[in-house]
Amino acid sequence: MTVLESEAAMALGAALLACLILGGILIFVGLRARGQAAAVQRDNQRLQTLLATSPATAMLVRGDGRIEMPAALVDSFGLAVAPATIAGLSADGAGLTPDDAALIGHDVDTAQRSGRAFHRVVHPVDSSRALMMCGQRIAGEARGAVVIWVFDVTDTRTEIDRLANEVARLGGAYDALTGLIEAAPLPMWYRGPDLRLQMVNAAYVDAVDAGHADEVVANGLELIDGSDRGSPLAGATAARERGSPIEQVLPATIGGARRMLRVIDVPLATGSVAGFAVDIEDLEQAKSGAKRFAEAQRGMLDRLSAGVAQFGADRTLVFSNQPFQRLFAIRPEWLAEGMEFDRVLERMREANRLPEVRDFPGWKRERRDWFVGAEGATEESWHLPGGTHLRVVAQSLPDGGLLLIFEDRTEQVQLASARDTLLRVRTATFDNLFEALGVFAADGRLQLWNNRFRAVWGVDEAFMVRHPRVDAFANEVAGRLATPNRAGLIPELVRAATVERQQRGGRVAFADGRHFEFAAVPLPDGNALFTMLDITDSRRAELALRERAEALEEADRLKTQFVANMSYELKTPLTSISGFAEMLHGGYAGELPEQAASYVGAILDSTERLALLVDDVLDLTQGGEGIERGDVDLAEVARQAASTVQPAIRRHQIDFAVELARSTGRVQGDARRLREVIEHLLRNALGSLPPGGRLLLHSDGTSSRARIIVSDDGPGLDSESAAKLFDRFAEPQLQPGGERALGTGLPLARQFVEAHGGTITLVSEPGQGTLVTVELPRR
């Protein structure tokens, strides 16, 4: 083979090889295209199946306005042929209404321009069907096609309308319920699944002192304070766990006051919890008050003297007080058994504490009717063996129970019997009294009188039995009085006793010369007792005594005047005797012998004593008159009195001590009379002391009183003699020298002390001396 042939063969082989490779490539490409076509066909079949089974039917609106739709959709719109444009959806008398077609066209145009999807519900003409048209632009074109899915929502629309009506109804109910909850006077709230507050009403807001409900929810303001009795969320948690409402009684602070609330938490199906609170503070207070009242009532019933027993609606004894148990001999162990009504009666019968009856079962059956008795209490009287009288009161209770009260009236019956006896005795006594007695009622009528009363006034029995009024009685008896006008006192006294409840009396003279003392005495029952006592004899004796007293007073006045005149007359010679004796003692008539000087000293002592006696007698006759009041320094007065008796003290060689404390102070009185009081006390003590005796003058005081004490260590006196020292009419006292002296000093001292409002006391014992104490008030 030549080279050319070889090259040609090689070229042919290369061409064949290229053809084979190209064919293989073509075969591979064809097989792959065939596979892709099969896959596309399968996808088309699947899409066709989906479109066929889809609840929606698609239609395509191209960019130029032309539409493509399947025949089923043409039938859905009620058209005979498929329309070319959107406007063709509205044919004469078929398809959509022009308005719906226009709206769909506007929605498609908007979707093509802005790409915004739309949803529109349309109704074919003369059809009850509702079609939902949902359109969306196909991406990829500036003015792309729009795919519209058409859903038949006729059934769904009906359900939607029904649900819309239901929603509207429920919305109205919710609004009403919300308004009711908001207007509710009790706090209400709603908690979410996390148990946090989500809604509260106005009452809740007011209870926690918040400004708005949003503030309460935002801050989680709880109505219930956390305490030992419970926490705000404990009830809600328990209610949700149990699946049933939980009720608690918890305290809360509302309006600054502590209140008790009944809190109810109600679990909801959503896991939320609703709640509300009822203020039961007043109810708790009422319950507490009722409990305390019941306890107090039972305590009070235990203190009653009457027996009380209470039976419940089941006719079981629920309460009995101590008097009931004692009265019917009820044992404590019987009470623990809860005795029934019939059993209680049987126990009473066993204790012989029931009336004796022939038919006890019938009697007991009648007493059972007390439980269903008519309104009002039933009363009976039981006469028990042994003379006991009981008043039984049976009161049916509203709850079907029974209350029994047993009052022991034995003492009242005995007292009534005794009263009847006393009335008979009183009547007999009343009629036989020497006093004239009449009883006038509160209305002024004469009710009772004795025979003496009628005889005194001399009125007929026929007049008395008419029970005349007090005015008529006074007119009837006025002519029997010495002064008829005095009869008006009878009505006045009766009215004072019956109306004013005051006792008044007086005297009245009868025309026949009799005298009566009368009085009107108020009685406890409102009546008046008019009493009359014949005082004719005592009246006569009184007149005689009065005349004698007047004569004695005149004689005493003359005696006093005579004594006063004699006292003044005696002072003149005494003054002369005293003056001449002093001149003799002073040596004016020459030096006297020792014995003559002693005689002159005796004369001076006697004249001094006689002058004092004359002054004392004069003062006694004046009876303490002429007391002058002034501010008196009592210590100074005491010094003056002590200096006055100092000469006599020295003559008798008496140990005289004077103690005047600074507390003596000042008093209101007559300085001269107080000095005379101290002088009389000192001279009285000096008269009983032998030479060398001891005499003490002491004074002190307090803020209210001043005190003067004169004591001596003389022979003292027995109690009988000491009692007569202040009696100015007593016999003269025996002096230590054996002389009898008039005791005018101490009576006069007491007279002056009492005139100053003070007191004087004397204490003396034989051989122990005498102590006289004077107390004077500061004012």
TrEMBL record:
Family matches, as Pfam families: HATPase_c (PF02518), HisKA (PF00512), PAS_7 (PF12860)
Sections of the chain in a coiled coil: none
Enzyme nomenclature, EC number: 2.7.13.3
CDD domains the record matches: HATPase (cd00075), HisKA (cd00082)
Sorted UniProt keywords: Kinase, Phosphoprotein, Transferase, Two-component regulatory system
Record has Phosphoprotein as a keyword: yes
Enzyme class: transferase
Catalytic activity, as annotated: ATP + protein L-histidine = ADP + protein N-phospho-L-histidine
SUPFAM superfamilies documented for this protein: ATPase domain of HSP90 chaperone/DNA topoisomerase II/histidine kinase, Homodimeric domain of signal transducing histidine kinase, PYP-like sensor domain (PAS domain)
Domain Histidine kinase: 565-779
Gene Ontology molecular functions: phosphorelay sensor kinase activity
Annotated protein name in UniProt: histidine kinase
Organism classification: Bacteria, Pseudomonadati, Pseudomonadota, Alphaproteobacteria, Sphingomonadales
